[in-house]
TrEMBL record, chains A, B:
<dbReference type="InterPro" id="IPR013785">
    <property type="entry name" value="Aldolase_TIM"/>
</dbReference>
<comment type="pathway">
    <text>Metabolic intermediate metabolism; (S)-3-hydroxy-3-methylglutaryl-CoA degradation; acetoacetate from (S)-3-hydroxy-3-methylglutaryl-CoA: step 1/1.</text>
</comment>
<comment type="similarity">
    <text>Belongs to the HMG-CoA lyase family.</text>
</comment>
<dbReference type="InterPro" id="IPR043594">
    <property type="entry name" value="HMGL"/>
</dbReference>
<feature type="domain" description="Pyruvate carboxyltransferase">
    <location>
        <begin position="7"/>
        <end position="274"/>
    </location>
</feature>
<protein>
    <recommendedName>
        <fullName>hydroxymethylglutaryl-CoA lyase</fullName>
        <ecNumber>4.1.3.4</ecNumber>
    </recommendedName>
</protein>
<dbReference type="GO" id="GO:0004419">
    <property type="term" value="F:hydroxymethylglutaryl-CoA lyase activity"/>
</dbReference>
<keyword id="KW-0456">Lyase</keyword>
<dbReference type="GO" id="GO:0046951">
    <property type="term" value="P:ketone body biosynthetic process"/>
</dbReference>
<dbReference type="InterPro" id="IPR000138">
    <property type="entry name" value="HMG_CoA_lyase_AS"/>
</dbReference>
<dbReference type="Pfam" id="PF00682">
    <property type="entry name" value="HMGL-like"/>
</dbReference>
<dbReference type="InterPro" id="IPR000891">
    <property type="entry name" value="PYR_CT"/>
</dbReference>
<keyword id="KW-0479">Metal-binding</keyword>
<dbReference type="GO" id="GO:0006552">
    <property type="term" value="P:L-leucine catabolic process"/>
</dbReference>
<dbReference type="GO" id="GO:0046872">
    <property type="term" value="F:metal ion binding"/>
</dbReference>
Amino acid sequence: MNIPKEIIITEVCPRDGFQSLPEIISTEDKIEIINQLMNCGYSQIEVTSFVHPKAIPQLKDASEVLNGINRRKDVKLRALVPNLKGLERAIEAGVDKVKLMLSATDSHSLSNANRKTFDAMKEFEPLVTRAQHSSIIVSGSISVIFGCPYEGDVPIERISEICKRYIDLGIYDISLADTTGMANPVKVKRIVGQIRDLYPELKFSMHLHNTRGMAFANAVAGFEEGITDFDSSVAGLGGCPYAPNASGNIASEDIIHGFEEMGVQTGIDLDKVILIGKALQERFPVYSNSFILKAGKCSDLHLAPKCQEKIG
Amino acid sequence: MNIPKEIIITEVCPRDGFQSLPEIISTEDKIEIINQLMNCGYSQIEVTSFVHPKAIPQLKDASEVLNGINRRKDVKLRALVPNLKGLERAIEAGVDKVKLMLSATDSHSLSNANRKTFDAMKEFEPLVTRAQHSSIIVSGSISVIFGCPYEGDVPIERISEICKRYIDLGIYDISLADTTGMANPVKVKRIVGQIRDLYPELKFSMHLHNTRGMAFANAVAGFEEGITDFDSSVAGLGGCPYAPNASGNIASEDIIHGFEEMGVQTGIDLDKVILIGKALQERFPVYSNSFILKAGKCSDLHLAPKCQEKIG
């Protein structure tokens, strides 16, 4: 394989993982977990979402969490913002980056944001202006890009139009999200290849869910198409709303381990991530989904048995 | 991707899945499950292993199971045989193919078969002669080829020597087994590429375990290197002896679904496999490991919610 030698893993457990948990985690615990994650070598952590407290009560303490953590210059803090009010809160809390949520299909956009895709994009304009005013980096996203649970495949023309409008907004950093795990390696290579050729000025990252067991294969497919920036969640926290107990986010320890085994550097201390994952798995056993926490790393060799009982 | 349009999936649950279950399944139930599997469109099923009954009590009824099932001309029945005695039983039971088990490393071979790798291969000679005499197809295997839990990486020189000796034995059909899930896509492409170039006369298949979440990515990597023959186990039955609760065989429904989503035909009725998988999962919930049984197929679309509650 002719592949890059390093990738960036963005830890999203404090946002995507926590928001899917039914049990409220205390602000102190969130701060403690994010502080631990900041010491793992991640260059970027998605710490929270500045949504309306009633929409996601778990994240209502977003500002307090950001105020409480020990900042590090080498770790960029990203937050989701749904609207101008959320952006103001994010700026006040001192995030480095904000990410705008957008669905590839109208039906998913209506169910998630109460407005159609291109209507939602129009409302991004004042947000981009406001963020630029405070030197906050704005990234975009395209949820359900590899398949929508309501509409199925998304036409490439529509994806292309979304990319074009992101460029018009001045947003060049776009997360391709397989929100409900409907991607496959062939589809990833086709879509990523097409939009990369159409818009070489865009920088794509991937947000993968392991709902149907293909997340790592999809990451490798994206990687082979030049993507070197992936989201993941420690302990695999973050489920799938359409299928109880189904896997959600690819686990950080699984994607870090997989790429490191392939000879690709992440700059992250896998053993530290595993320790954090074990604690989370112990606390939220039903919501964690991780291979490495169960099986250990490939490099954890076993002692060969000394002899075998003779049979027959 | 420049890829073949179809693959062969060999169902191994009746052997690899059942042998890992602590609860003995009745002969009648085994026959019933194999009969159901034979109606799914599989062209090949690994029905049992003719090992010593004391080694794997679960499979002691191998002959009765083979005698009881409804044969179909379009489904080849394969069995594992560890020695001449097992081969005689397999021939008497009327299998179409036998597979010889071999470990890539001496430590794994000693722990599994009480003899070193090349000593085991020497004992294959009379088996091949005997099988040819009865027109039984003999295939070989190389367990732990992508990594040994005792020794780690296996040198390519050793893998090459094993391939050479298989050719000397007249065995050209070889299963590359990632017995404890230590492969990754880069390693798969490197090893498969090297041995395919060295021995173009050999036909390789893959037996993948999802221990560390990379089985589907490894299948795709092998597929891109020209492999079109994969083992899998319905409901993902078949665990990992080194890690309790860790995933074992890649689930048939997961690999069939994944490849079909990629536009690759398997000839298998996925819905029928899912039904069998659901029944097995219900009976052995702790031992099954399947994404599709939890999440459903990508094509199972959901109804979009009609409206959303206004917040704030």
